[in-house]
Amino acid sequence: MSTVVLLVITGLGLGALYFLVASGLSLIYGLMGVLNFAHGAFLTISAFLGWEAGRRVSDGTWWGLAVSALVGMAVGALVAALTEYFLIRRLYERHIEQALVTVGLSLAAVALFEGIWGTDPIYTAKPEWLTETTEILGARIPNDRFLLIACALVVLGGIVLFLHRTRYGLIIRAGVENRQMVSALGIDVRRSFTLVFAIGGAAAGLGGVLASVYYGYVSAHLGSVLLIFAFIVTVIGGLGSLTGAAVASVLVAVLQQFANFYLGGTGDLVVVVALAVVLLIRPRGLMGKVA
Amino acid sequence: MTSDHAMLALEGIGLRIGGARILEGVSLEVPAGQMLGVIGPNGAGKTTLFNVVSGVVRPTAGRVVLDGVDVTREPVHRRATAGLGRTFQTSSLFPELSVLENVRLAAQARLGGATSLVRIPRAGDAATTRALDCLEEVGLAHRADAEASGLAHGEKRKVEIAMLLAQDPKAILLDEPMAGVASGDVPAITEVIRRLHRGGRTVLMVEHHMEVVLGLVDRVAVMHHGELLAVDTPEAVMANPTVQSAYLGEAM
What we know:
- The complex is a heterodimer of chains A (about 290) and B (about 250).
- With about 290 residues, chain A is mainly α.
- Chain A has helices at about 1-30, 40-60, 60-85, 95-115, 130, 145-165, 165-175, 180-185, 190-215, 220-235, 240-260, 265-280; strands at about 120-125, 135, 140, 215-220.
- In chain A, the strands form 2 sheets. In chain A, strands 1-4 form a two-stranded antiparallel sheet. In chain A, strands 2-3 form a two-stranded antiparallel sheet.
- Chain A is globular, with a radius of gyration of 19 Å.
- Chain B is of the alpha/beta class.
- In chain B, the strands form 2 sheets. Chain B has a 6-stranded mixed beta sheet, sandwiched between helices. In chain B, strands 2-1-4-5 form a 4-stranded antiparallel beta sheet, with helices on one face.
- In chain B, α4 (about 125-135) crosses α5 (about 155-165) and α5 runs parallel beside α6.
- The longest helix of chain B has 15 residues, at about 155-165.
- Classes of the chains: A mainly alpha (about 290), B alpha/beta (about 250).
């Protein structure tokens, strides 16, 4: 029983990380049809700069972590908005060029980060409470899992409120469904593209800082690994569906934990098989729209 | 309400894609307040012409002049704010939004502040009130909270008209407003189109339903193979032998 509890909660924590990356991917694809392979780079740069800022202010304390998170979100939002504005904007509806540019950007970013911060992981300090465990139903749960889950829930709630309760949110929801008609009503839908990139970048930036807490280090490859799973999550959840991304994040991460424990470390394989099964049985994903 | 002042003028519109000639030398003036029907066989270029007028497609020759202003190089959203509204043949709705949200988006665009980051729409705000008024006008206020995808076909067309009322354009392009509409609903939708036209709006309408076209419009433009064959009153157009042969084949 305690093992199951541990695996579920750890899975939820990992799922929270996946969601922070996948939420942006899904919104960006939903509104603009862009598969953003540079999203992992947004996460990594935020993790590095967040860590640099946090350790200078107060290393290994809550205050330092808060600074890291804020800086990470700001960096993620800014880098994503700039990427949209200077690169992607010219390439709408040109899917191959988009893929080439975003893949190229992510490869160049990894090389750049390795040049600045080296190829080895840099171990990070965190507040003492996050290094401890809490006992739930006999399972000793690392406390950082709770932080990840709480942050993902706040981000999910924030994005949902924004989409459903603001005027701009209405434009974005409408744009996901029928971009052409939003323009025909006299609204410059392109302005919302930059905003959606910034929101996705901020979520990924927070994800980067939290990933460094979860793994205990920052490295130039932090974003690459998470991006692969975030893409799988996005496809399983249904491209363009935020709720789908949230549900699929949890499913994939929990499944991964259980397979790693009970099926001899086959978590990654099981996730890829799950992706194949979903694509065969329900190609639009769990909650995706019919194309 | 018709006056001599041209609300919409097309000057020598041509469109070539690759080597194919899609539109050729289309020139047309629509006076303010007039309702013009655009007819022609499938593939004649009617919808493409609407796409050129609304800015979805840029022509390779000619000018589009809206209310005296050359808008040929303006993007879709700027033509819309300049007073051009349109519907699309397939659907102009946002299926997963509520009926009210569909119309409120149009009202937001019209009233300004549509892209405000912080402004929260609430029950009594101007955009919502305007949207409800427009729904009332097409007789759909009771469906305000329904999801648009759940509406019957005729109701969807009415929501599109309500969106146009909320947007309040000077000129309107309707692309087959009767497509897919059950024959029982035709009179009701004809009536809301008439209401849209009232108040001096200029309307261009592509429609295959000839009874509707002939009952509503002031003039008819006939297209064939990307060219304009004739522009005249409905009676004169129907009596025109060139039009008859284009429509019904050489045997006529």
